[in-house]
Amino acid sequence: MGGWIQMGKIGIVERLPLKKQFILTFVWIMLLSVICSVITIGIGLFWLSRSTWIQPANTYENQLPEIAEYVRSQHSTIMNPESRADLEKRIPAEGIRYQVVDMDGKPIYGTLPGQQIQGREVLIDKLNKTVSADASLGFGGRFLKIVPVTTEEGDWEGAILFQYKLEVSGKSGSGFNWVNLACILIFVVSPFLYIAIFTYLFAAKFGRRMAKPVHELIEASQRIRDQDLDFTVSYKADNELGLLTESFENMRSALKSSLLREWKLEQERRDMMDAIAHDFRTPMTIIQGNVELLADVPDMKRDKAEAHLKVIEDNIQRVNRLIQDVQVASEKDMEYFPLRGVKVSLTDFLEDKEREIGYICGSHGAEYSFHFEDLSPSVGQTVFMDVQRVSQVLDNLFSNSFRYMPSPGGWLGVRVQRQDTTLQFEICDNGSGFRDEDIPHLFGKFYRGEKGQSGLGLYTAKILAEKHGGSIHANNRREGGACMVFTIRTDGPAPNHVDI
């Protein structure tokens, strides 16, 4: 499995920090709510003004001139209560109330209760005028228009008071309340309604923007849970979610690299164990064959029996060495190897190693050469090193050479050179040499070459050389065979020296 976890095209707003996205969303909600509220109120007012069932505020005021003309045409007969029926036919009862009064302002009849004018002088002062009766009510309040009543000769007999309101109302006369309520709903409720609508719409869109990376992260975590790390999270944004996805991607990449290393190491361990298992079979087969031979020939001559026992002993040592290699590789970090550096005589050490090389080559039917070159004789013959660890390096290199040199006809060359505080060992043989593609990996911990051998011995040699402040490398001889060269420092504890 593999691929990209795509999140689609990322817009400009989506790249902004979450705080800015919240602020921008709020601004858009309020701005659109205000614009839509203004448009709604304007349309509502326009519709109300054009409506046929809505009466303007001055509807009843405009009817008063016609009613006043009728009053004047009736002269003093209008003062008679018997004229009430004819008068009320011309006065809209739902919008205008009236009262017929004498010259002292005392009511004679009408729909307006109580005495409205207190005295003749007040009445005379307000004749033919429109005065405010109560400006605190409604939009325009109540108004009082006073029309004088005269005889046919023109003598003043009294007056008629007309009370009306300046406000919008329904034609039925009783529709003012619900019309007023409708206007209030339009003016007051619509802004909140638009805020609620746009909040829902923008919140849903904001939620979808947030949901995309969150869902992708959930999908990515599920794929990791299923041990699938071969994907890439592609969401990129300069905000908190972008940082979260970037951190998640970095974690996925690091986890993938770590698991790949772990899987590779596990595979290398299995391959190494397969190789060592093969190495185990060879000495165990030899041991078993010699034991069976000794058992089958109980009267074998002593010298032959001792030869067989020597073969068994050598192979038991090989098995023990393989066991030690496995223990070191599996139970401890191979970089552990502590050093016990001491001052030793370089001459004595090299004489001992030359004797050992002669014995080993003799047992393998191989020839050898040993040369020492001192380029700094004034330094003295005392050096500082861990004799056992340096011998362990040499033993690993010797073993590697003997494994691939011909027998008989093998040859091992050892050349030691000292310069100042550096000691260099060069071990060459006339074996099959190394394949070019194997040379860079020879000193790997679990490297296995074409012939199946484990690389633990050479890896151990590399670690010990480095702990002595030196290095090791390998190459092939022009004449055929291989060469191993390693150097150590002999002037005191190396940087990685551990004295225990």
UniProtKB/TrEMBL annotation:
Membrane topology note: Multi-pass membrane protein
Instruction: Report the InterPro entries cross-referenced here.
Output: HAMP_dom (IPR003660), HATPase_C_sf (IPR036890), HATPase_dom (IPR003594), His_kinase_dom (IPR005467), HisK_dim/P_dom (IPR003661), HisK_dim/P_sf (IPR036097), HssS/ArlS-like (IPR050398), Sig_transdc_His_kin-like_C (IPR004358)
Cellular location(s): Cell membrane
How is this protein named in the record?
histidine kinase
- What keywords tag this UniProt record? ATP-binding, Cell membrane, Coiled coil, Kinase, Membrane, Nucleotide-binding, Phosphoprotein, Transferase, Transmembrane, Transmembrane helix, Two-component regulatory system
On whether Coiled coil is a keyword of this UniProt record, the answer is: yes
Record domain Histidine kinase: where: 275-492
- HAMP domain ranges (all copies): 208-260
Membrane spanning residue stretches: 21-48, 178-203
What's the domain of life for this entry? Answer: Bacteria
MF-aspect GO terms: ATP binding; phosphorelay sensor kinase activity
Taken from the UniProt entry, a GO cellular component term is: plasma membrane
Q: Which residues form a coiled coil?
A: 302-329
Which reaction equation describes what this protein catalyses?
ATP + protein L-histidine = ADP + protein N-phospho-L-histidine
Q: What EC number(s) has UniProt assigned to this enzyme? A: 2.7.13.3
Tell me the leader sequence span: none
